[in-house]
Design a protein that fits this description.
By secondary structure, the chain is of the alpha+beta class. Helix content is 17%, strand content 30%. The strands form four sheets. Strands 2, 5, 6, 7, 8, 9, 15 and 16 form an eight-stranded antiparallel beta sheet that branches. The radius of gyration is 23 Å and the shape is globular. The N terminus and C terminus are likely disordered.
Length: 366
């Protein structure tokens, strides 16, 4: 059975599926170009216990990924609304660097050169049971472009020790927009240049990303036009429209449906792609309108970090309001160049950031 476009039904966009499909279908990082400034500088961090109001912007970031088991590994591209990358952190130096191993980062013998991966695989081979901490970790992270609606001051940039950073070329301090932390913060006291609203990058670990995905799924359960509950009618091939899952008659359990819709499906017509969803909205059907799912990018969000144990936090995130971005913030609504922000460190930079000077340089394993 093939589903067409009828009153009250509409196919989701053909490119890349929805947020949940795209995020579930990709699991390896892509490789970018060299960068100049560590991404931690200027990165957004939700406040602890108080809340910020932000807007996540929908980017369009093509990346390369890998899937399958060796030797049958497939390299493929996907366009995501965020930037996915792998972060290394050294216990010895207490510093981090972005992985340069490319889309095959999780395949030890297929990856591109990366000092962080050399150290990671060396510790893995020395401790195959994982009973001790890795000397260098390897963690997938996700970078978003956001608008922070808070107050920012233009102040001197400082390093993690609190020292002002100076340009070696001009001798002048680096300046940056920094979030106002309190009525009596340094920017307020010194009457620094101030503005409301700032575009900023937000790198998050998997635990935060999972909360964002859960919120996106809850938001997408309702119609953007009338706020009515939506019903999933079918999941179909993007090319021929053949129904792979007919929700009215399927006997598949939810986990099987999730697996079918979150991974590329190879149709009998020869197309291999994420499936498109056919949705129905009863209210839109009566109005002869085409329904549209709400998305994560249609809403202002309230975010906070909630303490959970020593030096650990969970992300609190909820909808503040569904609205268009206000006119006074439209100038900030362009997604950032996250490919540059989260580009890999060079091998020389990784050596400096990750390798303990008291140890010998690591031996490459691919």
């Amino acid at each position: 059975m093939a589903f067409g476009l009828a009153g009250g039904e509409v196919r989701s966009p053909l490119v890349g599926g929805n947020f949940g499909q795209r995020s579930a279908a990709t699991g390896r990082l892509s490789r970018g170009q060299g960068r100049r400034v560590p991404y931690i500088f200027g990165a957004y961090r939700p406040p602890i216990q108080s809340t910020d109001t932000i807007r996540i912007l929908e980017g369009r970031y093509p990346q390369w990924f890998a899937r399958g088991r060796e030797p049958n590994v497939e390299i493929y591209s996907a366009e995501l609304p965020y930037w996915q990358f792998t972060d290394h952190f050294s216990l010895a130096t207490q510093r981090g660097a972005i992985c340069s191993a490319g889309p095959c980062a999780s395949y030890r013998d297929l990856r591109e050169p990366c000092t962080g991966c050399d150290l990671y695989w060396m510790s893995t081979m020395a401790d195959p049971d994982g009973t001790s901490d890795r000397s260098v970790s390897k963690v997938v992270k996700y970078g978003f472009s956001i608008i922070d609606y808070g107050v920012y001051h233009f102040v001197e940039q400082v390093d993690k020790e609190g020292h002002v950073r100076f340009s070696t070329r001009t001798g002048k301090p680096y300046m940056a927009w920094k979030k106002c932390t309190a009525p009596e913060c340094g920017g307020c006291v010194h009457k620094a240049q101030t503005k409301v609203g700032h575009p900023v990058h937000w790198p998050v670990p998997w635990s935060y990303f999972a909360e964002i995905r859960n919120l996106a799924a809850a938001i997408g359960a309702r119609c953007a036009l009338c706020d009515s509950q939506l019903r999933s009618v079918a999941w179909v091939c993007v090319r021929c429209g053949r129904a792979v899952v007919d929700m009215a008659g399927t006997t598949h359990p939810p986990d099987t449906i999730a697996r079918l819709t979150e991974t590329p499906h190879e149709c009998r017509c020869g197309t291999k792609a994420l499936l498109n969803e056919i949705i129905r909205c009863d209210e839109c059907s009566r109005r002869r309108a085409e329904p549209r799912r709400r998305t994560l990018f249609d809403a202002d969000l309230r975010v906070t970090r909630i303490p959970k144990g020593a030096d650990k936090f969970v992300l609190g995130i909820e909808v503040s309001a569904f609205r268009s971005i206000p006119d006074e913030f439209q100038r900030l609504a362009r997604p950032l160049d996250l490919k540059r922000t989260f580009a890999p460190n060079s091998l020389e930079e990784q050596e400096r950031l990750l390798v303990d000077p008291s140890t010998a340089p690591p031996r490459s394993y691919g």
